[in-house]
Structures are given as structure tokens and as C-alpha cells.
Amino acid sequence: LSVFGVLVLSLLAMLVVATFLWNGLVLATILRVRSFHRVPHNLVASMAVSDVMVAALVMPLSLVHELSGRRWRLGRSLCQVWISFDVLCCTASIWNVTAIALDRYWSITRHLEYTLRARRRISNIMIALTWALSAFISLAPLLFGWGETYSEDSEECQVSREPSYTIFSTFGAFYLPLCVVLFVYWKIYKAAKFRIGSRKSNSITPITPGA
């Protein structure tokens, strides 16, 4: 390896350690502090779990992959595990962001109906759906033979390039949550703008005729 290559790999290794420690600290804080055992901290904890899994299970093997000249020499089974965890954790992280956005939207626009009990129940449902959907997207190639992730001849290990799976996975893991987040924050912006306008109109004191 060149000096530049060693420098890049060193920085990547530091990034792996920093990612693991930071998200591990977030997760440990939420678990240890009792006041954090509520919404939205459970959603943040779910996102921290996905990021810790990326740092512990995905990024180290990515480093090995880079050190091997982007050739996979660890066998088919470990390749499938690596790709599955990569897709699982990244998809879960994106959907956790979406769940946090939805929680904020409902707490702002439906604060009367969105009670603490309802908020806790809905957040737990969103966390369960997030991981279930992420697991389905990541395991679909293995469950249904939806393309191949490993090539022994070329020593390649990558996400299935089957066109139908590519459309399915990108829509479910990126475009759908992106549309939800954009829509939710647009609605939050409109609600905030309406509240600011209402406060301004209420703060105007009418001038009496005798003044």
C-alpha cells in the first residue's frame, strides 16, 4: 500500500471506532438514565442500535474488503451475512429517521389526541415495523433467490443487481421514506407558520374609537 492508501485506511479505521463509541455512548445513556425511557428517546435508541450494528458488523468487513483490493476472499456465507446486515442496518437507520419525523409531526399537529400512552404505543409499533421491513428488504435475495450477491470466479461481493430487486429495495429503503420525511416536514412547516400567524394576529391590540 502507498502512503496515501495507509492514511485513508487509518482514517477509515478511526471512523469505525468513533462511530461505534459514539452510538454506543448514546445507547448506554438512554438505557441508564430512567428519564430517557420514553418517547422520542426510544426512537433515538433504535437508530443508535442500527448505527452500532453498522460499526460492529458492516464497517470492519468493508475495511477488509478494501484491504483486499475490493476482492472478496471470505467465502459465500460471510458475504451474504455482510450484505444482509449492510442493507438491514442502513434501511433501518433511514426508517428510524422517518419514524422520528412522524413522531414530531403528530406531537405538533395532534397534541390533544397524541397522548403519552398513544405516543408510546405508536412509537413501539413504528420501531417494530421499521425492523421488520428492513429485515424483509435485506433478506429478500436469500429468501426468494432474488439475484446473486457473491461471485466466486470474480471474487465479488455486492448487493444483488437483479433489476426488479434494485427497484424494490431502492423504493422501500430510500424513495418511500424520503417522500414521507419531505411531506411530514412540509406539514410541520405549514403548522408552524399558521401558529406564528395566529400569535401575531392575537397580539395586535385594537385601537378604541376614543383613543
UniProtKB/TrEMBL annotation:
Q: Which residues cross the membrane?
A: 6-31, 43-61, 81-102, 122-144, 164-186
> What GO CC terms are in its UniProt record?
plasma membrane
Repeat among keywords:
no
Q: Which UniProt keywords apply?
A: Cell membrane, G-protein coupled receptor, Membrane, Receptor, Transducer, Transmembrane, Transmembrane helix
Task: Give the UniProt subcellular location, in the record's own words.
Answer: Cell membrane
Membrane topology summary: Multi-pass membrane protein
Q: Name one GO biological process term.
A: adenylate cyclase-activating adrenergic receptor signaling pathway
Q: Sorted alphabetically, which Gene3D superfamilies does this protein's record hold?
A: Rhodopsin 7-helix transmembrane proteins
Show the Pfam families listed in the entry: 7tm_1 (PF00001)
G-protein coupled receptors family 1 profile domain span: 22-211
GO molecular function terms attached to this record = G protein-coupled receptor activity
* UniProt xrefs under PANTHER family: 5-HYDROXYTRYPTAMINE RECEPTOR 5A (PTHR24248:SF202), ADRENERGIC RECEPTOR-RELATED G-PROTEIN COUPLED RECEPTOR (PTHR24248)
Name the family.
Belongs to the G-protein coupled receptor 1 family.
* Protein name stated in the entry: 5HT5A protein
The organism is Oxylabes madagascariensis
Lineage of the organism: Eukaryota, Metazoa, Chordata, Craniata, Vertebrata
Protein's gene:
Htr5a_1
